[in-house]
Design goal:
- The longest helix is centred in the last third of the chain and has 21 residues.
- About 40% of the residues lie in helices and about 15% in strands.
- The strands form three sheets. A five-stranded parallel sheet has the order 4-3-5-6-9, sandwiched between helices. Strands 1-2 form a two-stranded antiparallel ribbon.
- The chain is of the alpha/beta class.
Length: about 290
């Protein structure tokens, strides 16, 4: 059995201070981003046994006489039911890949990991404002404002590996997977099958740097694996562009196919794009703002 790596106290303290130093900036940026997408608080926007009025709807055969709102019905020739807004919290789990490739950032941009953390925290804030429970995949889902702070701290801690663990799924929840999906994704079909069997639905978001999305390289380029394991020196990088983009498109189509088969959705975000646009798309896909 491998021996654990023991870090000394000064090193642990330095790493903790470095992580905590980014916490206020991440929270502030996520709050601003969330406010751009949905500036006001909102409810869960589903009919249910809550206290707040949601909408009137025409009565159906399954509605009893006690459900009819006779005052509203008296103003028309039809009978109407007064729906109230559901107050039962749903849960959502967010997973961000911790692969070395997620730390890539070209031309002074945010790394993929930084952008993923920002979108994940802003999305968590929106869900929490709606009374829903949120957590990183494998952690206890909670509601309330303090959970946003817990999420920020957890997001800045060491991220898990390249593969999400199906054992961390909980029945009937929703999951958001964020990764570049550039490394071996063989784990994903099994994860999605397990999720579908538990009634879990979600979204897989591929996040890329513009260098990865468009391959702008020409001439002599030294390509190196972020983990330091592989290296390729090309004297004519431009000649690789067509083949690379074809492989990338195959991966995108594969991701879309694998998710659609299990009732999931897929999306893509490039880090030179406005994060508010991607957050709004995720928010809408999860049923927010309706």
């Amino acid at each position: 059995m491998r021996q654990p790596i023991v870090q000394d106290a000064p090193q642990l303290r330095a790493e903790a201070e470095a992580a905590s130093g980014h916490l206020p900036a991440l929270i502030l940026a996520a709050e601003r981003l969330a406010a751009m997408v949905a500036p006001g608080a909102h409810g869960l926007r589903r009919a249910g046994p809550g206290e707040d009025f949601w909408q009137y709807r025409p009565a159906s055969s399954g509605d009893g006489l006690r459900a009819i709102d006779w005052r509203r019905s008296a103003r028309s020739d039809a009978e109407f039911v007064r729906d109230r807004e559901a107050q039962t919290a749903q849960s959502a789990a967010i997973w961000i890949s911790g692969g070395q490739g997620m730390r890539y950032a070209g031309d002074g941009r945010d790394s993929k990991l930084q952008r993923a953390r920002l979108i994940a925290l802003a999305l968590s804030m929106l869900l929490l404002r709606g009374g829903e429970k949120v957590a990183l995949l494998g952690q206890p889902a909670r509601a309330g404002r303090l959970q946003a702070d817990r999420m920020a701290e957890a997001l800045l801690a060491d991220a898990p590996g390249d593969a999400a663990q199906a054992s961390a799924l909980r029945p009937q929840g929703r999951v958001i997977l964020i990764s570049d999906f550039l490394t071996d994704p063989d784990w994903l079909p099994g994860f999605l099958d397990h999720a579908a069997g538990m009634g879990v639905r979600g979204i897989a978001v591929q996040i890329l740097d513009p260098d990865e999305a468009h391959f702008p390289f020409d001439g002599a380029v030294d390509f190196r694996d972020m983990a330091g394991g592989q290296r390729h020196l090309s004297r004519d990088a431009g000649s690789l562009r067509e083949a690379y983009l074809a492989r990338l498109n195959e991966r995108r189509e594969w991701l879309a196919d694998q998710t659609a088969r299990r009732g999931w959705q897929s999306d893509c975000h490039v880090t030179d794009e406005d994060p508010a646009t991607r957050l709004a798309a995720l928010w809408s896909a999860l049923g927010g703002g309706r």
